[in-house]
Every structure is written in C-alpha cells, then in structure tokens.
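Work Package 4 report. The design task specified in the project plan requires that, given a folded chain encoded as structure tokens, an amino acid be chosen for each position. We show below one input record used in the internal validation round.
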C-alpha cells in the first residue's frame, strides 16, 4: 500500500508541478478555447459538476466514444482506470470488473458486481448488457460500491449510460464507418418538436456488421462475423413547467456468429512434452504431441485459423424494452418515477470445442423478463444546506433457461446396441445433458441519502439502503431432451442486507475538493444456473459484502487549463462469490460458491490538461493489489492468488490536436492508447490461463467543417496488429482450453454529420 501511495503522490506531483511551473510566467488569462470544460454528471441522481461529487468517476463523451470505436459495452475495456470488460460470448454475458470486483459467471441468472444503467433503468439481465451504444450523451463509470442510490448488485461500481433526449429544438446527427473486413458501423439520431414546448420526439438507430476474422480450414469460410442492429424512439411530453414525461421504447437484435475460440490441446502424447502438472508444456502446444480427449490437435499456431467443421454457430439475441420517467416539481421537492419493462431472448449454438470432431456442442436458450419501478422524492434547491433523496425500488424478474450440452457425440458408436440405439452412456458422459430451470425474483429496496452543509466548506453525507431479493428456483437436470431425469431441485430463499454510505467533502477552493468516504455494498446471493450433476452444486450461495474506504482529491487549476482527480482505496471483501471449475462424474463443470475473504487496495490518478490552445491531453492510471486472503476450492488452496481480471496496472491516454484552417474548417488528429499489465482469467493463477501485459493503440485524423457540421476522416484501431487473449474457458477433463482473442487491426474511413 505504501508503494502505491508514493507512486500516486509522485505522479500527481509531476502533473500538478509541471502545470504550475508553466503557469507562473503567464501575465494574462488563457483563452477560453484552452480551458478544460466543466463536466456535468448525474451520479447522485441530480446534475452536479464532476469536481463536486465525492465519488471516483470517469466520464466518456460522444467524441471519445466515437474516436475509440465504442459500439457496445465490450469496447469500454481499459478506457477508465480499473475497468475491465471481456466475454467469451459474442452477444451476451459480458464479464465486467472494476478494481478487481466482478463475476465471471456467464449463466443468465447470474448478477454482475457492476450495475449497468441506461437512462436510470437498471439492466440486470446479462442477456441484455451487450446491446449497442448509439446516440449517446455520455457514459459515466462510477468506481467503488454504490450502496445507497444504486444499491442492488453494485459492489464494484456502476456504468451509467445517458442517451440523447428529445428537445424542442431540431437536432440530429449520424456517423458512417467503413473499415477492414468489410466492417460497417452506421448510427445516428434525429429529433425535434411535434408541438412546440409541449411534445418532442427523438428517433435513433444503429447497424453494425463485419466479416469474420477467423478462417475455417474445413469449410473454407471466415468465422466470428458480426451483425447487430437496434433502434430507439422517445417522446418528451411537458404539459406544464412543473411536469415532464419521457417515454421510450427500444429494440435490439444480434444475428452474428457465435464466438469461435482457438483450440488448445492439453493432453501430452509423449513424456518430453509433459509438464509437472501432467499437462502439455506450453512450448509444445502446436507440436502435434498435445491432443484433446478425442485425439485432435491444432498445430499451425495461427490464432486466426483453425479446423472447425461445416456448421458455423450463431448467437441470436433479441431485446425489447420500454420505460416511462415522470419528473414532477412539487414546490421545494421533485417527484421522480421510473417504470421499465425489459424482455431478452437468446438462442446461441456453438461448436464449443472448436475442432472438427464432435466433442462438446452447447445450445444456450434463455429468456429474461422483468418489470421495475423506482420512486424518488428529492430536494431541488441547489443552494440549500440540506440536499436529500428518499426512494423505493421494486423489480419482478423471471428467467427461464433450457440450455443443452451435447457431449462426446463421436463416441456414441462405441455404446450402440439393439437396446441402446442412441449410443447413450451417461456414466461415461456421452449424451445430451440439459438443465431447464425457472428462477423468479422479486426485489425490494428502500433508500435515502442526505448531504448537509456542516460549515461553509465542509459537507457531510449519510446514506442508507435496505434491499431484499426473494428468489424461487425450480431446476431439473436431464438426459437426451427429457428421456431420463438426473435430478430435480426446488428451493425458495430471501436474501437481504443493509448497505450505505458515510462521507465528508471539504472545499479547498471553488475548483478543488478533498473527500473521505466509507461505503458498504452487497451483492445478493442466489442459485447456480449452470449444468449440475448433484444437488450440492445447487445449494444457495450467500450474499457477498464489501466495505470500502476511500480518500480522494478533485481539482481544476492553472486557470482551469488542467483537471486532476486522485484516489486511494481499501476494500475488505467478505464471502466473495466465485465462479470456479470442479470435476463431476468425469466432466469439468463450473460451480458458483462463496470464497473466504479478499483484500483489495490501490490508487488511481486521472486528469486532463490543455497546455496550449488546440491541444488536449487526458490520461488515467490505476495501480491495484487484489488477492484472496482465504479461499480453498475442491481441495485447492488459492489463498494469496490474485483475483481474476485484476491487473496490477492499467493506463489509458489520449492526445487530440486541432489545426484551425480559418473559413475552411479544422483538421483534428487524435492518438489514443491503453495498457494492461498481466491478467489471470482463473482463480488458480495458472500461467496458461493468463495474458501478459499488452498495449492497444489507435489513431484518427479528420477534417471538420466550421459551419456545416460535416466531418470526414480516417482511423486505425489496434494499429500494431497485436494479438491478445480476452477470455479463456478451460475444460481440463476434455483436454482443451478455449482461447478467445481480440479482433485484429482495423483501418477505415468515416463520415459524420451533426446539426
């Protein structure tokens, strides 16, 4: 902790010292164009300056999102300090971590430790969290437990997405991209008044597609193609100056390929390639002396090619949603009511083992349906000594899953007989194994937060939330589509907890604050939603709890040319919910259980500066220590191991320079990069289940008209065409790791228009 603190202080001192040294000789104030603009956020359910909010927040505006090619939540990876996003799936179940806190479970009834909110609506289902980003105002990444105002399942933090609202002035815009692999990204929005000052609309949409980047040597086709589209229609109704009603409907569909990872065989065929753990040495993976259970090996070492077979799976996802938000000013208070409905369906078929043999194939079939209602009563006087929020929340969610795993189909002929024409052998894990279940959840919460001006410069914060999830779980494990039942399980349980916030913020100056906070977050317990072969796997796991302590500084200086935010944090992480491997009846399965305790601490620095006119520089740095204190699973002691998806250091930086051309417009150049140190994908911290440090660099240059709102340019993403691993799914019992890589370099052109 000491070394992290000293590093943070050193970085902060260099940034602020350099800025102050440059500011001393100035005799006149800098031009308005050189100042860092105020950023307004809604992290505390009201509009406030970023510098005045005692929460670690990163804000990504539209230009940043477009320059770095962010079209869904996956592309947010490393764009904010401590933020990690990955997935082994093409269109669902992102694995989101902030400061090492998250969850790797990809089952549809799992809940991430990071909450996603779109226009105030909680997107709880992992089936719905990878819908497209388009026509956005900004994205706020809130780090640390949000245990009061956001509450449910936000131990790691929250991603708060705000779309462009309808307005009574005509406005619109769009962006069209064409890039490598015939990649197309079209998005835009338009809106304006229907009845002046009474009714306005906005219509927005997105279409994204690209050819595959992984060559199948069996079929001659390219796999991992992308195709998805979505649309949103919003109406704003303001019958009086005190009332506004915002109604929105949205639709999203994904029709792209299921993710086809690389096949990495693990079973050694010779003593010289056998490691100490009995598996193949990494140096021999492509030697042909390492095979999977059925004897297949991919030997070319090409991460963009493989032998996959004639059938390319699809990951089909369809989402529908609607919401209504009422804002009603009642004298000195505002009433806010948000009602929302969401429905998500997924039907994904994948050649799971990524080989030409039929070793394991999975068909994910899931549906999630939810209704939520939030009511808030909050003060609306920005100059009052006391600012407060009181609220209640309710959600009714039903999840149905009917997924199947077809295991070792190529071995069926060995077991065929007149009495067994299908060749089933459950004792040898040969058959189609299904696990249909229904989970119903009713969530309730009451919450309140007050900020009180203790002195002219000191503000105290107190927040408290009570949450409860009532879950009913009905599960069945079966063989060959109901031909035989392995087990049935029904249970009901309530999971409740208190969470909250306590903090102090001291104003050093109108442009600088320091703060100290304590936050308690919790993530609800529940039931495992994957393939189970014993009742023990389905026993409910408990709530996890996180106590977070944080101190920080936020300031603008050098005549507002620069902004600097720093924070130090310490987490006591108890009963952590952990997704881990286990061997059941000869097959590697995944289980979800509570680990012991973990300790997480670290430091973050984030800032921006405009040292000269037309030059903007921004950067963020995270230093993180995240380890299990006490965790034994399946007889393996993981105590002292790093938490998955928790690199020791991450960095993001962006430089933008604008060349004014007078009446001919401007030329705008952007260079951006991100860095992540080594990442482990598994609790075991095995070297084969990790990714070494990696840089990802992009650039964009464009011409921007000064008056017409037109912009055209070229871009490159992953300029140096680096290959790195974004996910690994190990199946030790079948002798294979399924390794998912990033997309390769993309070079393209774009046209943008706004008015």
């Amino acid at each position: 902790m000491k070394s992290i603190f000293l590093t943070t202080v050193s970085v902060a001192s260099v940034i602020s010292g350099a800025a102050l040294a440059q500011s001393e000789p100035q005799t006149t104030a800098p031009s308005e164009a050189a100042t860092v603009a105020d950023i307004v956020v809604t992290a505390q359910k009201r509009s406030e300056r970023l510098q005045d909010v005692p929460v670690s927040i990163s804000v990504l505006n539209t230009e940043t999102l477009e320059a770095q090619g962010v079209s869904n939540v996956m592309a947010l990876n490393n764009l904010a300090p401590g933020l990690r996003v990955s997935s082994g799936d093409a269109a669902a179940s992102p694995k989101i971590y902030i400061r090492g806190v998250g969850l790797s479970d990809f089952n549809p009834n799992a809940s991430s430790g990071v909450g996603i909110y779109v226009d105030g609506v909680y997107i709880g289902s992992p089936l719905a969290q990878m819908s497209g980003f388009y026509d956005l105002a900004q994205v706020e990444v809130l780090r640390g437990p949000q245990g009061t105002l956001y509450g449910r399942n936000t131990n790691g933090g929250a991603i708060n997405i705000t779309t462009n609202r309808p307005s009574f002035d005509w406005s619109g815009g769009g962006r069209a991209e064409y890039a490598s692999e015939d990649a197309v990204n079209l998005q835009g929005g338009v809106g304006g008044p229907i009845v002046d000052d009474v009714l306005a609309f906005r219509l927005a949409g997105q279409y994204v597609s690209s050819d595959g980047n992984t060559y199948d040597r069996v079929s001659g086709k390219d796999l991992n193609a992308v195709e998805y589209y979505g649309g949103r229609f919003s109406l704003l109704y303001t019958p009086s100056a005190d009332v506004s009603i915002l109604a929105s409907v949205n639709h999203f569909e994904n029709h792209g390929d299921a993710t086809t990872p690389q096949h990495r065989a693990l079973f050694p065929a010779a003593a010289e390639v056998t490691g100490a753990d009995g598996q193949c040495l990494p140096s021999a993976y492509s030697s042909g002396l390492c095979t999977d259970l059925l004897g297949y090996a991919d030997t070319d070492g090409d991460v963009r090619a493989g032998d996959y077979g004639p059938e390319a799976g699809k990951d089909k996802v369809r989402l529908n949603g609607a919401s209504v938000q009422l804002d009603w000013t009642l004298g000195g208070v505002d009433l806010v009511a948000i009602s929302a409905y969401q429905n998500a369906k997924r039907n994904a078929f994948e050649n799971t083992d990524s080989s030409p043999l039929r070793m394991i194939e999975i068909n994910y079939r899931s549906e999630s349906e939810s209704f939520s209602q939030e009511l808030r009563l909050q003060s609306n006087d920005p100059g009052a000594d006391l600012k407060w929020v009181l609220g209640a929340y309710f959600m009714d969610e039903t999840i149905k899953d009917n997924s199947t795993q077809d295991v070792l189909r190529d071995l069926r002929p060995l077991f065929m007989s007149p009495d067994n024409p299908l060749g089933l052998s459950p004792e040898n894990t040969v058959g189609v194994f299904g696990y249909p279940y229904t989970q119903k959840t009713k969530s309730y919460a009451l919450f309140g937060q007050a900020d009180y001006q203790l002195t002219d410069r000191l503000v105290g914060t107190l927040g408290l939330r009570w949450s409860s999830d009532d879950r009913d779980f009905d599960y069945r494990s079966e063989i060959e589509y109901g031909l035989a039942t392995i087990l049935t399980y029904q249970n009901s349980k309530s999971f409740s907890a208190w969470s909250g916030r306590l903090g102090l913020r001291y104003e050093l100056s109108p442009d600088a604050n320091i703060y100290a906070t304590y936050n308690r977050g919790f993530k609800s317990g529940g039931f495992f939603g994957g393939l189970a072969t014993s009742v023990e796997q389905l026993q409910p796991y408990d709530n996890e709890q996180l106590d977070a302590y944080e101190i920080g500084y936020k300031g603008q200086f050098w005549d507002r040319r620069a902004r600097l935010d720093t924070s130090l944090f310490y987490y006591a992480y108890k009963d952590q919910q952990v997704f881990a491997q286990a061997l059941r009846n000869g097959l590697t399965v995944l289980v979800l259980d509570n680990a012991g305790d973990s300790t997480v601490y670290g430091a973050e620095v984030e800032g921006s500066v405009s040292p000269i006119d037309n030059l903007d520089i921004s950067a963020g740095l995270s230093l993180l220590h995240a380890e299990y204190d006490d965790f034994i699973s399946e007889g393996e002691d993981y105590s002292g191991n790093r938490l998955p998806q928790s690199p020791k250091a991450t960095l993001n930086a962006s430089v933008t320079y604008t060349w004014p051309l007078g009446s001919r417009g401007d030329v705008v150049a952007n260079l951006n990069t991100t860095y992540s140190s080594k990442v482990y994908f598994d609790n075991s911290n095995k070297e084969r289940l990790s990714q070494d440090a990696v840089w990802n660099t992009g650039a964009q240059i464009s011409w921007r008209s000064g008056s017409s709102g037109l912009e055209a340019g070229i871009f490159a993403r992953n300029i140096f065409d680096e290959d790195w691993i974004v996910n690994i799914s190990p199946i030790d019992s079948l002798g294979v790791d399924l390794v998912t890589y990033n997309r390769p370099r993309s070079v393209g052109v774009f046209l943008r228009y706004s008015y």
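The mean pLDDT is 91. Validation will be extended to a larger panel in the next phase.
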